[in-house]
Fold this protein.
Amino acid sequence: MIKGNGLALCFALVLLAVAPPPGLAREPDLSAQARKCLQCHAKEGIRANFPEDGESVPARVVPAAFKVSVHGILDCTACHAAYLPEIHPKKRFRSREQFRAVTTSACRGCHSIGQIRGNPIHANFLKRESEGEAPVCTDCHQAHTMTPVSGGKIFTNEKQYCMSCHRYQMDMICRNKEKIHLKVDLSELESFAHDKLRCSDCHFGFSQEEHPKRTFRSRRDYTVASSESCRRCHFDKYTKTLDSVHYAILSQGNLNAPVCNDCHGAHGIARVSHTIKGRVLTTQKCRKCHAQVYEMYSKSVHGKALLSEQNQDVPICIDCHTTHDIQNPLTLEYHERIPQMCGNCHANPSVVTKYGLSTDVLKTYLADFHGVTLGFYKKQREKLYKPARPIAVCTDCHGTHSITGAGSSGPPTVKANLVKRCQKCHPDSNENFPNAWLFHYKPSPSKHPLIFIVNAAYRIFLPVMVIGLILQVLLHVWRYAVNR
Amino acid sequence: MKRNRDDGKRMIRRFSRLRIFEHWGIVLSTLILFATGLSQRFWHLDFSQWLILKMGGIDNVRWIHRYAGVFFSFELILNVATAVAGVVRGRWSPSMFITRKDFTDAVENMKYYFGLDDHPAKCDRYDYMEKFEYWTILMGGFLMILTGTVLWFPILVTKILPGEIIPAAKALHSNEALLIFLINALWHIINAVFGPEVFPLDTSIFTGYISRERMAREHPVELARLEEVVPAEPPAVGSDHPAESPVATSGASG
């Protein structure tokens, strides 16, 4: 007998050891009590009515869904404490509000405040609960279908999961008491470039399983930090920004320097647009910080054409300053690139000829003193030394953002301005000096006839002389050969 | 004045030490000026850019060009000053002056080349080709000095003259440079190196001596005067007055 008992005990132990832990391989059975409740509550259309406000909530529980939920092993009365299969008061709740409040307190029976607060996402709700406006637990976790945190299968996609909370007005409080709104407008997100992304693609570290608690010193801190996620996909752009003046300022500790989000936005990231609307919008992005420059630009020949004529040919900020690797425009290197920048349009017949502008401007500049010197300085920088002397480029005479059309002021004004400009580098020069520059004109009988005549005379005299000399040499050699 | 080479050829002194030295100075300065100047004129060529970078960049090249220009100017002034002084003091004959004989020589030579005459023009100390070369370079040299100075001090110049003088000076300077370069490269080098009579090199400007044989062929009038032999033909109108001493003749403005 004892022996038989011992064998039975051993068999039982082996069974226990081999059997998988409950909840993994074998779904728990509903409790007897639950089965009893479900005899009524599994019926379709069963609702609980609230007499005071006339509202109702569904009282149906789907047995299969409840069975696989994390609470499937519980008795119904574990949460619905006021009910017993034997005692079922007919009108338990006066109103929907009261029902919601009681529901939340039911959860607290098992889940302590400490445990709830353990998830940082709840901290905000608990705070707002004290102000009487927080959503109740079941708004997010559902009533009878909540799954274990680690295996949530309720939401068909992550976005839906995140939006279950982030559709609400929520704030994250920074250390400096600034508020960051956490409500996301899904419609905005879905109508822009990133509509196919999951939340966690950008909000790295967050998922249906994890929601780490993060605090930031300020709103700006948060913006700067969130721009870091862009590089995970846009690494080429990110590396370019590392060379930019904006990044240089940022790395010096100035958080006002623009980061990705400042120009591109956060959830409403627009697709790149080369339409006139897109180009105008781009200038507005720069305007946010560079208002003064924008003012000048908007009054310039380029700005006016863009804003009032919707002209697509004129340059906008990024055409000269580039987008991501924006350089400090006050450096010598940048200054020396200007003729090429202007030449991109002004030496391109398809862009400027229709406005009656000459495409010779770049060529005539590059062939003159300043242009030749500049060309060599650029080459020398790579191989020899970097000359510290700035050389006059297009913008030195024509202006930069406030540039006006060459025909907008009379020649005397142009010359008077030019003398002042020349004197900056050539202090002793007088009003004759600017005429040493041919104003982009090629010498012709009407423009700069003196130079035209000199060149023409040599163009005739040189070949004549060379041919004469060669003939003399050839005749001499020929006679010498004949005489021998 | 005369010496015999080892092979028994009779040599005649043609250039004094001053002229040899002067020639070396001109060779050196013009080589530097051409290298630094033409590379600036043809700045867009790869070779020019390579050369300028090798010489330490455009600023360096411009300074080298200016200093070489100053050196060249001194040489030119020295050349003219010594010639003028020599002629004024009566020690040298103005053998480099262009005379009517040079034009008749040129015509005569052309006739000879085309077989219409049986002998070349009988030239004096400097033939018409040497004179052409000398004067184009001398006058061109002064034009270069003038325009070069204008380009060096544009602010000073425009205080008095209109601004357009600067680009005009630039046009003159670079065109004239090309002209002088072509005369030097094409004419002078071909004559002094590849000339059939002198190949592989006319050494007279380096040694100071020329063979009597070449003198007889190229400068018969001067040879006759040196050897106090009556020339075959009387010297044409305007040719050099016979100098007292051949040594003095050799130092004339060449």
